[in-house]
Structure formats: C-alpha cells, structure tokens
Amino acid sequence: MDLLGATGGPVRIAGRELPRGELLGWASAVAHEIRGADAVAVHATASVETVAAVVGGVLAGVPVVPLPPDSGPAERAHILGDSGARLLLAGSDAEPLDGEPPLIPVDSLPRNGSAQDDAPADATALILYTSGTTGAPKGVLVSRSAIAAGLDALAEAWAWTPDDVLVHGLPLFHVHGLVLGVLGALRVGSPLVHTGRPKPELYAKAAQDDRGSLFFGVPTVWSRTAADPSAAEALRGARLLVSGSAPLPVPVFERLSELTGHRPVERYGMTETLITLSARAAGDRRPGYVGTPLPGVETRLAAEDGSPVPPDGETPGELHVRAPLLFKGYLNRPEATAESFTQDGWFRTGDIATIGPDGWHRIVGRASTDLIKSGGYRIGAGEIENALLAHPAVREAAVVGTPHDDLGEQVTAYVVADGVGGKQLIDFVAERLSAHKRPRVVHLVGALPRNAMGKVVKTRLPGITP
C-alpha cells in the first residue's frame, strides 16, 4: 500500500528545505541501502536527514526505530538491542558508541534514487519505544495500515488539505512530531515547516513568513505562547491550533483563545493507539475536553472490576479503545500485549476518563497516578489541577495521591506560584470544587519535572524541593 501521498509540497526542517521530488529521491537511495534489513534505527534529530531516513524505511518496507538524540547510553543500548536494529541511519557527524550497529551516513547518499512504496498494509512501519511506570521501555509495533487510517481520520476531522502549511517544532521520535507532524504532511500533501525547536517566536515567524495555517504544539508550547502576546497575535492568521501529548490547562486554553482568536483543538492518543479522540475543525471546542471518537474508533469506560461505567459526564472509569489504528503488539512481549487487552478485544489505555451523554470525552489522568482514592471517593487529579491553575498566581500545578492513615490517600498538590500560600490555594479550590476534592497538602516548588514532550513526570514529584 502507498503510505505517502502522490504529490505534495516541500519539507523544511530548521531552515533546510527539500522539494518533495528531491526528498523522495534521497529516501529512495536510503531504501536501496537498507532493503532486506529486519529493522533500522534512525538517530532522530530535528533534521532533513531524519526525514529522509524515515521515508527511506517506508519505501523499503523496513521497520524504523526512532532513537531519541538525548537518550542516555543505557536507554540507547536497550532500544538498539531490543529492537534488533541492524543498521543505524544518521548524519555523518554522528558518533556511534562501541557495540552499536554499523552507521550509514544519510547525508553522503545521492538524491536521485527511485523506489516504489509497495510494502503490504500490515507490515510494521515503526517500532516506537514507550515507557510505562515500571520496567524498561517497550517497543510498540505500528503498522502501515494503522498510520494510514489514523492520518486519514485526522485529515477529515481537521479539514487538513494540501492547501495547508503545517508548522511545528516537535521532536521527531514520537507519534506527535513524527507520525502526525511529518508522515501526516507527506500523506496529505501539505508543505511542512519544522521550526527546529517549538518556540513561540519561531511559530510567529512561520505564521508571518510562511503563511502557516495549521500549528501543532504541546501544552508547554501553548502556555509559553499565551505568555507572549506578540507571538500569540501573529497566529491570528492561522486556521487551526492543535494541542496534544498532555492536557491543555483550561486557563491556557482561554488565554490563547483571547490572544489569537482561535479556540484550540485538543485531541487524545497514545503510542499504542495513535490519535483516537479529537475536537473537529468545524465543530465545538471545549476547554478541558479532548473531543469525540474519530471515524472508525469505538470507546467505553470500565470500573476497576470490569463493569461498565455510565457515560454521564461525571463518573470516571478506565478508557478502553477499539479501532483499526491500534498497534500490533509489543515487540517480543506477548504477555504484556495480552495484558493490555480485555478478553473481548478492547485495548486498555490505563487512562481515566469521563464520557458525557453527547460523547464528549474528558481525560482525568493515568490510572496509576491520577486516580486518587480518598475517604471512599474517586477523585481525578486533572480537575483539581485545573482549579489550581485558575488562580492568577499559579503558573504550574500537579496533583497526586499520597498515603494517609485515615483516608487511604490524600490529595497532595505541587505548585509553582508567586506570592500565594498553600492555605490560600486550598481555600481557593474548596470554593470551586467539592470539599473532598480540595488539596490537604500543598508543596510550593520552583519547577515541575517534565519529560521531552512536556508531560509532568509525577513519579519524580516527591523528590523535588521548594
């Protein structure tokens, strides 16, 4: 099957531009070098070399393993060893470590090759590594057909066409930046402007100089944009601002709407599921919600005992998904794969959500860290975080459950704020939410620990200090 569109605009990464024909010629040369390999790793920097290497894997029908450029030696060794990658694609300036696969310097290959994209639909296109709460990262097998189904559903939901100019500066080793942000543009045929880094001033420049119309960002990007009125103002000419990879705080949604004139589109997905829920370009966009299922996607909520949870908009449950864009399984981990599905074939996301009678979904958080059981109540951390963020002095907030002798767990908040005390914040939340949802402890800290995609790493919260 053809994963890439027949025609399309150029790709520009950090100022280096490739016309589509030249990109395909270069990728064809990559495909010639790697054809027949079991898997290849790509040193996934924000560069045209990364795009050529990934597209080369697509053309050759060889699974691509994106290697985060900031991965430490242990993580890097695990990904390379676990994936079985036999070659490493990178720029000629890369320095492989001892024991790593042979390096193919992508920038030394010609740009006039010719190759057909004719691998079967069920072939693995990407092996993406994702970390759970315990154990080493697992390799997620993503098929060509899943990527195609997911991108086509998003193109429909967002009215994404070749007339758009996609702008983002996200890492090229995750679903957001690589699948949506590169393969999406190539499949739809829209030009891509990757800003190198996701900075508000670079997004503003792309909006003005490149007529950017479709912008992808994580909440950290949009929070910084909302704090930069001049950059936000430059995005008024855009068509759509899309936020994902973590919940967008309601105050950021509202501030961004005020400054840009756009109500952001929020969506939800995982490495294992690609994007399953989204607001629509032509529909409603509600702060704190991630929309409704994309075409072909089914969802349901389940209680801890597996019983159904009603779609009443209030009762939280674990979100289950069934769709043609689900992953094929975890590489070499049949037991982990089996455990991630229910007996009747639904994927267990591990995320806690509510679903309203109208089908709108709100993600409460991860079952492992964001569902707090306190005094017989089931409390979602996300609701409390949004309440804290509504205080004008609060810049960041993360809420977890911590052990309590009487309640089982107590609501504990870690907050980055200026000129406000913990007692004031507890009272502020109590005025807005049910009394049992108020934090019992507030730690005022200088910053929250985040990963490369801007998500707060809650398992590291107890170790941070004011």
Automatic annotation (TrEMBL):
InterPro entries: AMP-bd_C (IPR025110), AMP-bd_C_sf (IPR045851), AMP-binding_CS (IPR020845), AMP-dep_synth/lig_dom (IPR000873), ANL_N_sf (IPR042099). It comes from the Bacteria. This is Acyl-CoA synthetase. Residues 32-331 form the AMP-dependent synthetase/ligase domain. SUPFAM superfamilies: Acetyl-CoA synthetase-like. It holds the Pfam family AMP-binding_C. Belongs to the ATP-dependent AMP-binding enzyme family. One of its GO terms (molecular function) is medium-chain fatty acid-CoA ligase activity. One of its GO terms (biological process) is fatty acid metabolic process. Residues 383-455 form the AMP-binding enzyme C-terminal domain. Signal peptide: none annotated. The lineage of its organism: Bacteria, Bacillati, Actinomycetota, Actinomycetes, Streptosporangiales. Transmembrane segments: none annotated.
